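task queued by scheduler; priority normal; single chain, no ligands, no partner chains; default sampling; output format set to structure tokens
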Amino acid sequence: MIRDFKRLKTTWSFFGSKKKLVYICFIMLPIIAIFQAVPPHLLKYAIDLGMQKSDYSTLSFYSLLFFVTAIIEYASRGGLSYLASVAVQAMIANMRMHVINHLMSQSSSFHDKKLSGALVTRATSDFDNLSESLNQGLLSSVVDIFVIISCGVGMYLLSPNLTLYVIGVVPIVVVTIYFFSKAVKKSMLSARSHLASANGFFQESLTAREMIKLMSASKYVYLKYKNKVNEFRNKQMESVIYDATLFSIVHGISAITLGFVFWLIAKNQNLLGELSIGVFIAFAQYIRQFFEPIKQLSSKIAMLQGVFTSLQRIEDVLSYEDYVEGNQKITKPVSGIECKNLNFSYDTAPILNQISFSVSHGKSLALVGRTGSGKSTVMRILSKLYDNYSGQIHIDGHDLRTLDPFEARKHFGIVSQEVVMFEGSIAFNICGMSKRDDHKLNQLAKDIGLDRIITRLPEGWDSEVDYGGKNFSLGERQLFAFARALYKDPQYIILDEATASIDPESEKLIEVATKKILQNKTTIVVAHRLNTIKACDHIILLDNGRIVEEGSYGELIAKGGKFHHLADHALT
């Protein structure tokens, strides 16, 4: 339990400017405890000095004090709850952003091994659980601990002997809570794991919904998801059963202790003679107040374990360190790209084997080959999406490993066959975070034939793009992606099947435009279509991750080798 509470230290740095609110909350804790412990003593004085002696002015005085104390306690509790909620929500927001930034900064190899749905659960559901548990579980539990201590002191001031009997029950309660808390934590960790698995499967199914329907696999997917949800429910119910059982046990111990104290007073004549009516009633009130927070603590075990479980899972995410390193910047690209003895594997099977090539500044290189030969992998490595390769890659004389990923990618314009569109305007999807320049946008649209799409839209560049770009055809989305890559005027252009989804008319427009746009730019092209690589200065044919042929288009055709065969059967 101490180890679990130590995990709370990880949240401290995320409170930021709200740390002062946390300090105020800590100051308020003993104040609340004192004002809750005082009323039984006021009750004793009101009975013994007021009612017993028929002194109504004294009775009125202590009654007023009782009322004022209650008001201050409730006001303090309300203020504490508000201030703590403000601080906790600020901390949750900061921690959530830190986790998301941490996940986004991981290399692509990390995301290849993780279900995106499971990671989304870590960044959403776990934080929602942490927020609720901190506000409703941990905060009130800390208040309860202070109240238990203050009530113990209050009881001792009334009757040290009776207090020892009551305190003697506490170890039994502590041991009971300890064993049940371990069981609750285990079941909750398992439940969160099953939830992440269910969310990951659901995310995969949602992405592949059309294929699932075409394969008539809806029933299979439904049953598999149902099993995962049932596993989560069973583990969640297991924690609920443990929590309910613990509350019942502590509630029973509380009732038994109160009855035992009454029986002890009744059997002990000396003790009965020492106690006034006021002390007797005040002590009974203290017993109730002493065990009430203990009962609440036992009922909050699930919430407390929710805090520790979520923190443990969040810590697990933050422990991942699969970064793409580098801090150097490219000043002005002048020398091109050089690759020597490049080797790479996603898992255990090698994807690239001893790949070497160079592309001088302003020249173009084409990578061709059958599916799975490693063409797109080369593109991903050059884009600094992966860092776990062997060999050497130099960009303008800089080792690619030493280049800052964010800065390096500013010099790369990348068009892939998988087009990603974001909700927002067309202009936003092209300009991104760069400053919007309508003149530049219009000129670019004319160059690549995008103007015929823009002019027919009522709102032009401000037209909204639906989720995933579903309100535009695949070919139109490919044109947007092409414009996005060219808008920032990069010195390096990577075209990974860039025209695979574009109609022949648009492809011709882009071909003419790119001859002008790509002048003085270093270009690497991955393509299956023969006409997209004819004008490239150098062509490399890959097969099973190895270079089998290279040269100009004319040289490779003249050789009559594998490239010529591939051109006849696959590239035409």
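post-processing summary
- The two ends are 68 Å apart (CA to CA).
- The chain has two domains: 2-319, 337-569.
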